[in-house]
Amino acid sequence: MFSKVKTLSRAKSVRRKGEPDDKPPGSGTVLLVGELAQVAEVRDACGTVSAAKVEACKVDELAGKLAAATYDVVVFDAARDGELSTIVRGSSKNAKEKMFVIMYGSECAGSAKKRLQAYEDGVNMVTASPQAVAEVMASVIGRSRAGPFTCPHCEAEGFFEDDLVDHMLLFHFNASSEDEVACPICLKGKFQKGSAHRSKNNVFVHVKNEHGKVSRGEEPAESRAPTPVWPFALVVVKNAAGQFLLVQEYASSGYWLPAGKVNPGEDIQDAAQRITKEQTGMSIEITGILRASYTPQDQIARMRVVYLAKPTDESQPLKTIPDYNSLGAVWAATADLPDLKLRGSEPRDWFPYVTKGGTVYPLDVMKSESAPV
Fold first, then answer.
1. What CDD domains does the record tag this protein with (predicted)?
2. In what order do the strands lie in the sheet with 125-127?
3. Could you tell me which residues are beta bridge partners of residue 159?
4. Statement: 28-210 belongs to CATH 3.40.50.2300
């Protein structure tokens, strides 16, 4: 069922000139508590980690075991044996949080309330996957022991750079603390040890994006810069006769939909009405959304919302005086399109779609994030 899980390779751990080579990963101790020691899938998972020395204990022996010895990983099943995390943390000989505590079982892993409480009580991982248990065991036991770095959270020592980045995220990413600490690797700055915000002042954000694999170009850094988004409104305007509004574009580029860029601070639906008035002379009532799209490009992203609309008054005269916005506007039937020069395919795409009764989405599917549900 399980393949051998190798302890993590130290080949890519970062060493500074003059430092000794890392020692091979030594053995580590794993404690299975209570009934969990009799669960075949868990025993099999532990057996795939060759460097692990696995011990078992009864629940009433747990406090004494932890007081007398140091363990790298402790695994228990709250559904079978009760909530043991406070006993594990309170009785442990291990300094601070150097021990990795796993709550195992589908009942806990599948309960939002129990997962949240488990982490509040000091559990490091909640899982029902024996393979996940094996992978974490291999990582915890197989990390470097002869490196120069110390974890700022639990003061575990002997890390090389990659190991420390992995350790901090695996063990302490749920830490909540605004205490400040210098980066343990580059010794720069003052970072919050457990800020809930993924800002440049968060020590986890710093080590993840400035050190380890990212610093060597093996993984991309998480971009903290805002992504420039260019929002556009396009409008399909249909009259009672079944005709559609076309804008005559500049530079002999032909006809297109009323369309344009949304101004900073402008609501996109307001922009659709403004753009249609500027380009066609027509005031409109927007009745629905045909499509909302977000298209990432190299350095920017383009967002387009295609609205369906109708004239507020069909007797309004169309624009005929050329200006910066357009040369004018005209009503046209879908059947007219093959004989017309079009700037883009959108009239050919949307006019038949609307004529055939294609799906139109309500306007309230797209609102400001502050709008009530």
1. NUDIX_Hydrolase
2. 52-57, 28-33, 73-76, 100-104, 125-127
3. 149
4. yes
Distance in angstroms (rounded) separating the CA atoms of residues 208 and 354? 49
Q: Which two tokens stand for residue 28?
A: 């580590």
pLDDT tens per residue, the chain (373 residues)? Answer: 444 443 333 333 444 333 344 434 456 899 999 888 888 889 888 888 888 889 999 999 988 888 888 899 999 998 887 778 778 877 655 544 688 999 999 888 999 998 988 888 888 999 999 999 999 999 998 888 889 999 988 888 999 999 999 999 898 888 877 788 889 999 987 888 776 666 768 888 889 889 999 999 998 888 777 789 999 999 999 999 999 999 999 989 999 999 999 999 999 999 999 999 999 999 999 999 999 999 998 889 999 999 999 999 999 999 999 999 999 999 999 999 999 999 999 999 999 999 999 999 999 999 888 888 8
Map out the domains of the chain as residue ranges.
28-210, 229-364
Name the phi and psi angles at 256, rounded to 5. Answer: -155, 180
Name the nearest CA neighbour of 366 among 240, 279, 297, 269: 269
Q: Give exposure, 259-269, as e/b (b: 16+ Cβ within 10 Å).
A: bbebeeeeebb
The label of the residue with tokens 């021990």 reads 99
What is d(CA 6, CA 353) in angstroms, rounded to the nearest whole number? 57
Residue 119's Cβ-side half-sphere holds a number of Cα atoms within 13 Å equal to: 16
CA distance 46 to 52: 7
Burial 202-227 (b: 16+ CB within 10 A, else e): bbbbbbbbbbbbbbeeeeeeeeeeee
Residues 6+ away with beta carbon under 8 Å from 16: 148
CATH of 229-364, one of 3.40.50.1820, 3.90.79.10, 3.40.462.20, 3.40.50.150: 3.90.79.10
